Amino acid sequence: MSEPDIGVQDAISIGSRLSGAPVVAAQPARSGGNNRVFRLEMTEGPPLALKHYPSDGRDRLGQEYDALTFLSRHGITSTPGPIAKDPAAFCALYQWFDGDAAVLHPRHDDADQLADFLIGLQKLRNAEGAQNLRNASASIFSPEEAIAQYEQRLDGLRRASQDDPDLRAFMDGSLVPSTAIAIQKLRKRYAELGLNAAADLAPAQRALSPSDFGLHNALRTGDGRLRFIDFEYFGWDDPVKLVSDTAIHPGSDLPAADANRLIDRLSRAFMAGDDAFAIRLDVLYPVFGAIWCLIVLNAYLPESRSRRALAAQGADLTVRLAGQLDKARRLHQTICQRDPDLAPR
Q: Which of 72, 126, 210, 252 could link 215 by a cystine bridge, Cβ 3.0 to 4.6 Å?
């Protein structure tokens, strides 16, 4: 269970204590399903960001604070600098970034800015403190691990689909058959190459990943540059998952040409140090795509956070669920377009 959202007066009190300076006002901003952020006006100096985290059994605060501390220490200025934290209050204080939500007004060069950030991030793989960073949330280090995550998510939604014929038709008629083909091709390719699909990726081949990364977690400054927020999932992961997730993420909804350019740029960067990268990307991309289809459909799970978020937005939940199903269908079509063998017969 999550702690209840803190109020404005709580934010002023906690912010004053953590900053060591009086807070004049606190304004809720960038609220979401996983946290709540306040913009703090200070008596002196620039505004600060106070972030309140849910107590859901995962150390979101620690993971994000450690990540942003690491990035700040090594000169990254496009992510918020950490200032102070209070784990007991589930709060942390950060540098405030002004800017508009990038996803509301996407630009042609966004894919390149996303790629630039991720490529620059890999230059810190051997930097001081990097080996102490945690694994990314839902990290995957072998093909069989990816398949297991897909199957686990599928099991939960199968139960939910029993009461929804449209959901069941999509899963049984499209998603499951195409993913079965993708998994078969993956295992066959690995066997032909003499590779072990259950073996973990060597630490030297792993990537630093924000995990939940894209335009949905980016702000655009007045000069058009992107700044990135929300690093609760940051850590080590398979670079193939990083590339796939960033290109596929429905929160960015990148046009096909931009997604392909992003994949190409990141692939060239990772292939330089990993001879098997292109093979792994080819066979794993549709599996990660299927996982994302299931994530989009999480709203159908009775106890899911996304379902509660949709319900809180009002209107007819049935209509909103149908919208998520349509989004999953379109995402699945995009994945299948990369490999005609996956298209349902």
A: 252
Query: How high does pLDDT run on average in the chain?
Result: 92
Q: Is 22 helix (H, G, I), strand (E, B) or coil?
A: coil
d(CA 117, CA 208): 11
Measured distance CA(332)–CA(179) in Å, rounded: 10
Distance, in Å, from the CA atom of 15 to the CA atom of 147, rounded to the nearest integer, reads 44
Q: How far apart (Å, rounded) are the C-alpha atoms in residues 114 and 119?
A: 9
Which of 245, 261, 253 lies closest to 210 in space, CA to CA?
245
Which tokens in the block code for residue 227?
């700044």
Query: What is the C-alpha separation between 91 and 95, in angstroms, rounded?
Result: 14
Vertex 15, ends 12 and 18: CA angle to 5°?
A: 150
Residue 293: how many CB atoms within 10 A of its CB?
A: 29
Domains of the chain: 8-98 (3.30.200.20), 107-342 (3.90.1200.10)
Question: What are the structure tokens assigned to 295, written together?
Answer: 């994530």
Residue 6 three-state SS? coil
Q: What is the pLDDT of residue 264?
A: 97
Give strand pairing partners of 48: 40, 95
H or E element, residue 85: strand 82-86
Residue 130 pLDDT exceeds 50 = yes
